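name: query_chain
kind: protein
chains: 1
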Amino acid sequence: MIQELFSLTGKVALVTGASSGLGRHFAKVLAEAGAHVVASARRINHLNELVTEINTMNGSAIASQLDVTNQESINSLFEKTVESIGLIDIVVNCAGIAETGKFLEVEDSDWDKVFEVNVNGLRWVSREATRRLIEARHPGVIVNIASVAGIGAAPGWAAYATSKAAVIHLTKTMATELWRHDIRVNVLCPGYFPTEMNKAFLSSEQGQKYVERFPPRRTGELHELTGPLLLLASDASSYMTGVVLSVDGGHTIRLA
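structure:
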């Protein structure tokens, strides 16, 4: 019974930003739980490697190139998925970028670029998914990936942190409006997990000193996001919507 509660057998799950980092891990987790995974990102060669790995492990996945900032690219992905697999039940919005810069220093172009991907791209993908689910009168799940940077202040990351705060608030608004359509929307807020996006900082002296301020004195490991993701993506969270779930090793209560 417990296994069935977290099972995604028969579900079609879209993961954006699946070419590396958290998105790549999430795609493998969903496939292992039984979902047919649509792994999407701009770097198709990385996606093909991921799909080969998943299918070799008896999972089910296809690669679909996607630019979340391009409406035609989004529409094309959904059309092709419906034709080849079926309606998308689960969306994990993991595509994101980061630009460093303090409030007084961040360039307008960097600010706009971050919001275009992290907020607008997420909104456009979610909008297309929910429109189709509502039209089909089909239940669905959206898991938005934000960050602890969107919960507390993140000096030096003005654009990124603000974009993730926007994702958190958008998630709550979506959850309120979409509940009546049987579509749940929650947000997962990871702390520091080594990825392409942050590995340079984490390997620096400044980054290592920063991590020492966390209660566990270490960064997270990808497997520690597996359970939280499955909770939000599966029927195990059938009465949860608008939830902000932090997986951060106590980052938000870090030691001074």
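note: The chain has one domain: 2-245.
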